[in-house]
């Protein structure tokens, strides 16, 4: 998972970005408000919420989650919560902070979507220009074939960029679904 940091009231908050999930550093969230995570986790309401989160009845919008996908302790880094539980925790801490966490998660998710969309749009626009130029060159200007080859190179580069974004998303999905396979990937594979 990729770590992204944001600052809320001079407090660093880490977000672990995977393909199918974002986890938020609850230790840092609690520190920003001088509160304790265990008080939140001990409440009956929170316990019931976590039970529901494990087996969501939402028509397939969320896969069943195991304990490690909901709350994960990462040594000195702290305790991380699944984005949905993190939002509930943020609401418990402060309504203003809840909105900040919501919009930050939204920004992270949108950035992933934006990268894939931009790479795909760039590829499609270059393909269209290339196809029009090919027709024109074949009809009128065979000497402009050099420009045509240049567009072919740009298309190849844009396609590689798009495929890398898709591969990265797929790898994150595999790790989210099968965290036990994390040892198969070296740090350099990220």
Could you explain how this protein is built, in words?
The mean pLDDT is 84. It contains seven helices and five strands; from the N terminus they run E-E-E-H-H-H-H-E-E-H-H-H. The protein has helices at 26-32, 37-42, 44-54, 67-70, 83-93, 95-139, 145-177; strands at residues 2-8, 11-17, 22-25, 71-73, 79-82. It folds into two domains: 2-105, no CATH class; 109-177. The longest helix has 45 residues, at 95-139. The termini are close together. The chain has a five-stranded antiparallel β-sheet. Strand 2 (11-17) and strand 3 form a beta hairpin. With 190 residues, the protein is α+β, with helices and mostly antiparallel strands. It is elongated, with a radius of gyration of 22 Å. Helix 5 packs across helix 6.
Anisotropy-based shape: elongated
Q: Strand tally, please?
A: 5
Question: Proportion of β residues?
Answer: 5-15%
The spatial strand order of the largest sheet comes to 1-2-3-5-4
Helix-strand pattern = EEEHHHHEEHHH
Helix content: 55-70%
Mean pLDDT rating: 84
- Helix segment count? 7
